[in-house]
Design brief:
heterodimer, A: 258 residues, alpha/beta, 2 domains, 10 helices, globular, B: 296 residues, ABC transporter involved in vitamin B12 uptake, BtuC, 2 strands, disordered C terminus
């Protein structure tokens, strides 16, 4: 298996707080990888560093061999990394279809002149991209909401729409930041089915942050556990869940008998 | 049509073009600028000088004024669009005042504070009418393409816009340049309508008026901006009879519109036939005692 994402010795500090220390990770082609850990462990900081929102103090992040450090967020997206946000960030005043349409626009190869005059390939390209967006909505089961305002959707659908928008980039790697946050057990089980289905369909690698353990255990082939910016365990779901370090991080140490 | 009415029509048209520029910047990209009168001044003076000293055809004078404003807009945007919203606003405010003062100091070229008389009167109703149609069409096509959608994405969620591959810095600059070009265009028409220019025509009041018009028309709506410009240009004229209290009425009207319709006249909506029909039906139909949504 070849690696799609390689992170080596990544360090990121905010002032005196070491948010990530010597973090390394390798996500293989077509793999679903889980990143877990208690609150404040540095998981979202890692996502933000991968996508260029933060610049790390040292280390390297490579997407299929291309160094991502120093790139701006929109360049990282252009290289094939789609992401969702922990607190949903949709284009709320725009329609559901437009949300996905905007993410399809990297293929809109017309210039300002074409846009103003509607000459040349403008109409054909617009039609093709609109179709692509509608097909994606269809796959996500959101096509009946296509013209609704994105901000008016119920919570679960908003999460799905954010995933649809990330998929519109045709990503090689999809970063999901707590996709099951705020969901009950039934909704989370449905989400697992849904992620498996889209993974089957689009064949990309997925790196996900998640707190719902059943979701992580069912989806991920490998897991990294973080605590206070440090990697405390790495391996298959079975290995990780029986690691005493992990149990200690989540539940605390047993009190020593006097 | 009396020349007075003709004058109002022409002024409405000139204002519509400047307001459309601010609408693209503020209504669709959520960047506030208090410097667009400065771009109007650049367009006005550059086109007037081209006409009077260069004797170029009117169309080229307009294009020259608009492009000069666009170029300055690009430079200013590159320098200042990295600033956060409030700081950017202050920077544009300073820019507008700088332009005004600069034109006052350039006595030999602009006639300084005494003004610049003798500009050929070439702005006819036909020229303004064509310009307005072209400006609305251009804005509509621009906003209904990837460019406009990217600007709206930046307005809604800058971070998410970056995450779907939009170069937000580049698109913000683009919005700023487009608004400057529209302001310059409007200024060029203004100069050749009034045939006289003075720097204090393009003061902070003018910039504020442009932004207020967009807010009253409703953010994110071309139709709203056009309607608001018509109302706000014609209203002071209608109130001319009550000359002393005219600006008071104007102020009260602005406050009323904002309190009754906080989203502006047409916030995030455009005029369409379907929408117009529903609106008329709602006016005709007797008000139901129970909200229709509750019944279903």
């Amino acid at each position: 298996m070849t690696a799609i994402l390689q992170i080596n010795d990544l360090n990121k500090a905010f002032g005196g707080v070491k948010a990530i220390q010597n973090f390394s990770l390798e996500v293989a082609e077509c793999q679903i990888y889980g990143l877990i850990g208690p609150n404040g462990a540095g998981k979202t900081t890692i996502f933000n560093t991968i996508t260029g929102i933060y610049q790390p103090n040292s280390g390297s992040i490579r997407l299929a061999g291309t160094e991502l450090i120093g790139k701006k967020p929109f360049q990282v997206a252009g290289l094939g990394i789609g992401r969702t946000f922990q607190n949903i960030r949709l284009f709320t005043q725009l329609s559901v279809a437009e949300n996905v349409f905007i993410a399809c626009q990297k293929d809109a190869r017309y210039g300002l002149f074409g846009a103003l005059t509607r000459l040349g390939s403008f109409n054909r390209l617009e039609r093709e991209l609109r179709e692509k967006a509608l097909n994606l909505l269809d796959f996500m089961g959101l096509s009946s909401f296509a013209d609704a305002r994105a901000g008016s959707l119920p919570y679960g659908h908003q999460r799905k729409l954010e995933i649809a928008r990330a998929l519109a980039l045709d990503p090689r790697l999809l970063l999901l930041d707590e996709p099951a946050a705020g969901m009950n057990a039934d909704e989370a089980a449905e989400l697992v089915e849904f992620i498996l289905r889209l993974h089957e369909q689009f064949k990309m690698s997925i790196l996900m942050i998640e707190h719902h353990m059943d979701v992580v255990m069912k989806l991920c082939q490998a897991i990294t556990v973080l605590n206070f910016g440090q990697t405390i365990s790495q391996g298959s779901p079975a290995q990780v869940s029986s690691d005493p370090c992990v149990i200690e991080a989540y539940l605390g140490r047993e009190e020593q008998p006097c | 049509m009396s020349s007075y009415e003709l004058g109002i029509f022409i002024l409405v048209g000139i204002n519509i073009i400047a307001v459309l520029g601010v609408s693209i910047l503020t209504g669709f990209t959520r960047i506030f600028s208090f410097g667009n009168a400065g771009f109007m001044a650049i367009g006005a003076y550059v086109s007037a000088i081209l006409s009077m000293r260069g004797h170029v055809p009117f169309v080229l004078a307009i294009a020259g004024g608009a492009l000069a404003a666009g170029l300055i807009g690009w430079l200013l945007g590159k320098l200042t669009l990295g600033l956060n919203g409030d700081y950017f606003l202050i920077a544009t405010l300073g820019f507008g005042e700088c332009v005004r003062v600069l034109f006052e100091y350039l006595d030999s070229v602009t006639g300084g504070a005494r003004g610049m008389p003798g500009i050929p009167a070439k702005t006819t109703l036909l020229v303004v009418g064509l310009s307005v149609v072209l400006a609305i069409l251009g804005a509509w096509n621009f906003l209904h393409s990837k460019y406009g959608r990217n600007l709206m994405a930046i307005r809604e969620q800058g971070m998410a816009a970056e995450a779907v591959g939009i170069d937000t810095a580049r698109y913000k600059t683009l919005a700023f340049v487009v608004s400057a070009v529209y302001a310059g265009w409007s200024g060029a028409l203004f100069a050749h309508y009034l045939t006289f220019l003075a720097p204090n025509m393009f003061n902070l009041d003018k910039s504020a008026e442009l932004t207020i018009t967009v807010v009253i028309g409703g953010l994110g709506s071309i139709a709203g901006s056009v309607i608001a410009t018509i109302i706000l240009t014609v209203l002071p004229e209608l109130l001319r009879a009550a000359s002393t209290y005219r600006m008071l009425f104007y102020g009260v009207a602005v406050v009323l519109i904002i309190t009754v319709r906080p989203a502006g006249l047409m916030g995030y909506r455009e005029l369409s036939f379907g929408w117009l029909r529903r609106w008329i039906q709602r006016w005709r139909a007797p008000k139901p005692t129970v909200e229709p949504e509750l019944k279903s």
